[in-house]
Design goal:
21 helices, 29% helix
Length: 733
C-alpha cells in the first residue's frame, strides 16, 4: 500500500505521460487568435517527456500524436542549400567587400529568404512537389571574426573587423527574418558562438582568451546581431574557451547571451557538439547523460539525437530540471510558432511567395549586382584598366580558374553559372578573338568524394604553360585568373600557405614576361600574400568566389561598364612572418589592421576606382562631449575625376593617451556613396561615445576614459584624407 501511495505521488511526467487535465483541455496551441506565449505553454503542457526530447532533436522523427515535424532546419550562406538549383551569390567575404548594408539586407538576404520560403511553400502546396522538403530555421549567417588568414572558412564570414562584421550581420539577419512584427520569414542562426576560426582540431581546441579580448573583439558583432536584429538562434561552437567547452559554457550561453543580451530565441549545438564531450573534449570524458544534462543546464537548448535519447534519463536522475527542460522547449517552439508552422498555411504573410521566384531573372540580376559591387581593384598602374574593347582584336584568358566557378558546401545544386572566360566572350566587341589556356594547376587535396571539388584534369603543366605564354604573346591583353578552390580552403580544411598554390605563380610570371599588358584576377576566399604580383603585375583585381554571375561582373569591370568600388574586409599581409601563431588569440600581438606589425601588402579597407575622390570640410558637431554623449561628424566627398563611381568613406577612431594598449585605429562608421563627375555629397556619421570605450577588467565594464580621441576619415585604414579631434569629459559608467 505504501508503494502504491509513493507511486501516486510521482508526477506523471516522470513516466513520459501528459497530465490528464492537459490532455483533456481544448487545444489552444492550434488557435492563431491566442497570444504566442499562451499557445506555446499549452503545447508544452501536453507533451510527454519523450515527446519533448524528440522536439529538441533537430533531426528527430515526427511527433505522431500531434503530427509535429521535428526536422525543420536548413542552410544558406550565399545560396539556399537544396538538391535543385537556387540563386548563387558571391561568398559572404565578397558580400562584406561591397561595404553595402542596404544591398545585403534588402536585396541579397531578401532573395535568400524569398527562395527559402518558396521551397517551403512549394511542398506545402503540393506534398509531392520535387525537391527536398526544407524547414524555416536557417543556419546562417557565419559571423566568426577573421582573425586568422589561414582559416579555411574565411569565405563564409565577413572579415577581420568586429564593427564591419556586426553591421553586415545585422543586415543579413534582418533580411532573412523579415520585417513583420508578429511573424518571422525565416529564423536566422548565428554561427559559431564564439571564438571559432580554426578548422584544425576544431572539435577539441581550447582558445585562451582574456575577458577584455572577448568583450572588445570576439563578442561585439554577436551582441549586435542579437540585440539589434533579434537573431532567433545561435550555434554553440565546438571549441572551448579558457578550458570550458562552449556547449556547456554557462557564462557564454546563459549569463551573457540570455542574461545580459536578453536573447529570446534558442541555442543549438554544432553537429556532434554533445559527442565531442563524450569523446573527451576537455581531458575528462563524460557519459552521454551527463553531457546532455550539462549542455542543457548551461543554456544549450537544441541538439542532435543525443538529446532525444538521454533527456528522459537526465530528468529522472535529477541531473536536468524540468524547469530548464521546459524553458529550452519553449524557446525552440516560440520560434516555430512565429514562423507560422502551427497556423493555417494560407494565413501567413509569406505563404504567397511562389516557387517561380527561385533562380528567376530578377534574382540573377541581383547576383550580378552583388558580384559587381564586391570586386576590389587592388592596383592599376598606368591606368591599364579599364580596357577599351574597341581597340582589342585578341584577348588571352588564362588560368586554372578562368573557366570555372568555385562553389562551397552551403548552397543549392549548381545553377547556370558564368565563368570569367564566358563573361569576357559575351562582353567583348563583335569580332574580338578570345583565346583560352588553362596554363597550370591550383593543386590541393580532394576532400572525400565531394562534388564541390572535382579533381583537376590531369595536364602536362609545362606544355600548358607554354601554350598560355604563346597565347599571351600574341594577344593585345592577357587576363590571368588564379586563386584558391575548396581543395585549398573550406570547412575542415585550413590553408597551409598564404601564397598561390600549385603552379599558379610560375604561370603568372611567365605570362607577364610574354605580355606586359597582363591583368591578374585573384579568385580566393582568404587573403593572398603575393608580393611578386604586387611588384610586377600592372593591374590586380580581387574577385573572390563570385557566384553564378561572376564572369559577367568581372568582364563589366575589365571593360569599364562598371567602376569597381569593392573594399577589402581584411588585411592582406606582406609576408607570412607577420602573422602571429594560430594559437595566439590576443589580436594585439599583431593580428588585423588594428595591431599589424609593419606595412601590409594591401591594407584593410583598400580598393581603387577608375575615378578620384576628394575629402574636405571635416566638421565635428561638438569638440567636447560627455562620456554619455554622441559624436557627430560630417565630411564632404567630391568626385574629382571623369567617370561616375562609388566611394566607400570610412571613419576610424584612435585614443591618444589610452590607459591600456589600444588599437592603432578602429573602424566606427562607413558609407558607400555614388557620385557623378564633379558631384559632391555631405556625409554624416553619428555614434554614441560608448563606441570609444574599452573594457576595464578590474571593473568588468566598458569605460570611456576622459581625454582626446582622433577621428579620421578616409578611403582605407591606410589612406586617411581628413582628420579631427574630439575631447571626452567624464567617465562612464
Amino acid at each position: 500500500m505504501k508503494l502504491l501511495l509513493r507511486l501516486c505521488a510521482v508526477p506523471l511526467l516522470a513516466f513520459g505521460l501528459p497530465t490528464l487535465s492537459a490532455a483533456a483541455a481544448p487545444e489552444l496551441f492550434r488557435d492563431p487568435s491566442q497570444p504566442v506565449d499562451r499557445r506555446v505553454a499549452d503545447l508544452v503542457s501536453r507533451l510527454t517527456l519523450e515527446e519533448k526530447a524528440i522536439l529538441l532533436n533537430h533531426r528527430g522523427p515526427m511527433v505522431e500524436r500531434f503530427q509535429i515535424r521535428a526536422d525543420q532546419w536548413n542552410q544558406c550562406l550565399n545560396g539556399v542549400k537544396w538538391d535543385r538549383p537556387a540563386t548563387l551569390f558571391p561568398t559572404c567575404i565578397a558580400m562584406a567587400a561591397t561595404w553595402n548594408v542596404d544591398l545585403l539586407q534588402n536585396e541579397i538576404a531578401r532573395v535568400l529568404s524569398d527562395e527559402a520560403r518558396a521551397i517551403y511553400n512549394g511542398w506545402h502546396l503540393d506534398p509531392n512537389a520535387p525537391g527536398d522538403h526544407k524547414g524555416l530555421i536557417y543556419r546562417a549567417p557565419v559571423i566568426n571574426i577573421g582573425r586568422n588568414p589561414y582559416w579555411g572558412r574565411n569565405h563564409e564570414a565577413f572579415g577581420e573587423d568586429p564593427f564591419l562584421t556586426g553591421r553586415m550581420a545585422v543586415a543579413y539577419v534582418r533580411g532573412l527574418q523579415g520585417d513583420d512584427p508578429q511573424h518571422l520569414k525565416l529564423a536566422a542562426t548565428l554561427k559559431h558562438y564564439a571564438v571559432n576560426n580554426v578548422e584544425t582540431d576544431r572539435k577539441k581546441l581550447d582558445a585562451q582568451v582574456s575577458e577584455r579580448s572577448l568583450r572588445e573583439y570576439w563578442l561585439p558583432h554577436f551582441r549586435e546581431a542579437v540585440v539589434e536584429a533579434r537573431a532567433q538562434s545561435l550555434m554553440a561552437s565546438y571549441n572551448a574557451i579558457n578550458g570550458v567547452p562552449n556547449n556547456i559554457n554557462r557564462w557564454l550561453l546563459t549569463e551573457v547571451l540570455k542574461g545580459e543580451w536578453a536573447h529570446e530565441g534558442f541555442v543549438v549545438s554544432d553537429l556532434g557538439g554533445v559527442k565531442t564531450m563524450v569523446e573527451g573534449h576537455a581531458q575528462k570524458k563524460m557519459a552521454y547523460v551527463d553531457a546532455v544534462a550539462q549542455s542543457l543546464m548551461a543554456g544549450c537548448d537544441f541538439s542532435d539525437k543525443e538529446f532525444q535519447e538521454h533527456i528522459p534519463a537526465a530528468v529522472r536522475e535529477g541531473k536536468l530540471t524540468e524547469a530548464r527542460l521546459n524553458d529550452a522547449l519553449t524557446r525552440v517552439l516560440r520560434v516555430r510558432f512565429r514562423l507560422g508552422e502551427f497556423d493555417p498555411f494560407a494565413s501567413g504573410p509569406y505563404s504567397r511567395i511562389s516557387p517561380a521566384v527561385i533562380e528567376s531573372p530578377e534574382h540573377r540580376a541581383i547576383a550580378l549586382k552583388a558580384a559587381q559591387q564586391s570586386i576590389v581593384l587592388l592596383q592599376n598602374r598606368n591606368h591599364l584598366l579599364p580596357l577599351d574593347r574597341t581597340k582589342l582584336k585578341r584577348i588571352a584568358v588564362i588560368g586554372p580558374l578562368a573557366d570555372r566557378v568555385v562553389l562551397n558546401n552551403y548552397n543549392g545544386a549548381t545553377p547556370r553559372v558564368v565563368t570569367t572566360l564566358q563573361g569576357i566572350r559575351s562582353r567583348a566587341a563583335a569580332g574580338t578573338e578570345v583565346l583560352h589556356a588553362v596554363g597550370g594547376l591550383v593543386g590541393g587535396a580532394k576532400l572525400g568524394n565531394s562534388p564541390l571539388e572535382p579533381i583537376e584534369p590531369p595536364i602536362d603543366v609545362a606544355a600548358e604553360q607554354s601554350k598560355a605564354v604563346e597565347l599571351a604573346r600574341g594577344a593585345d591583353v592577357a587576363v590571368v585568373c588564379v586563386g584558391t578552390t575548396t581543395a585549398i580552403e573550406r570547412e575542415s580544411r585550413d590553408r597551409t600557405s598564404l601564397g598561390l598554390s600549385g603552379s599558379q605563380e610560375e604561370l603568372v610570371k611567365a605570362v607577364v614576361a610574354a605580355n606586359p599588358r597582363t591583368i591578374v584576377v585573384l579568385m580566393s576566399a582568404g587573403p593572398l600574400t603575393v608580393p611578386w604580383l604586387r611588384a610586377n603585375v600592372p593591374a590586380l583585381l580581387q574577385a573572390w568566389w563570385p557566384g553564378e554571375e561572376g564572369g559577367h561582373a568581372i568582364a563589366d569591370v575589365l571593360f569599364g561598364d562598371v567602376n569597381p568600388a569593392g573594399r577589402l574586409p581584411h588585411t592582406v599581409y606582406a609576408s607570412e612572418a607577420q602573422v602571429p601563431p594560430l594559437t595566439e588569440y590576443d589580436i594585439s600581438k599583431g593580428f588585423t589592421y588594428m595591431y599589424l606589425n609593419g606595412d601590409p601588402l594591401f591594407p584593410f579597407g583598400h580598393g581603387l576606382s577608375y575615378t578620384e575622390f576628394k575629402y574636405s570640410n571635416l566638421r565635428i558637431a561638438s569638440g567636447k562631449i560627455t562620456a554619455s554623449g554622441n559624436v557627430t561628424v560630417t565630411v564632404d566627398v567630391t568626385n574629382t575625376g571623369k567617370r561616375p563611381g562609388d566611394e566607400v568613406a570610412q571613419l576610424y577612431v584612435h585614443e591618444q593617451k589610452p590607459a591600456v594598449k589600444r588599437p592603432d585605429k578602429e573602424l566606427r562608421g562607413f558609407q558607400r556613396v555614388t557620385l557623378r563627375p564633379a558631384e559632391s555629397k555631405t556625409l554624416t556619421f553619428a555614434f554614441p561615445a560608448d563606441r570609444l570605450a574599452y573594457y576595464d577588467e578590474s571593473r568588468r565594464a566598458f569605460v570611456v576614459k576622459p581625454g582626446l580621441f582622433d577621428v579620421w576619415l578616409g578611403a582605407s585604414s591606410a589612406d586617411i584624407r581628413a582628420r579631427g579631434t574630439v575631447e571626452v569629459s567624464g567617465t562612464s559608467p
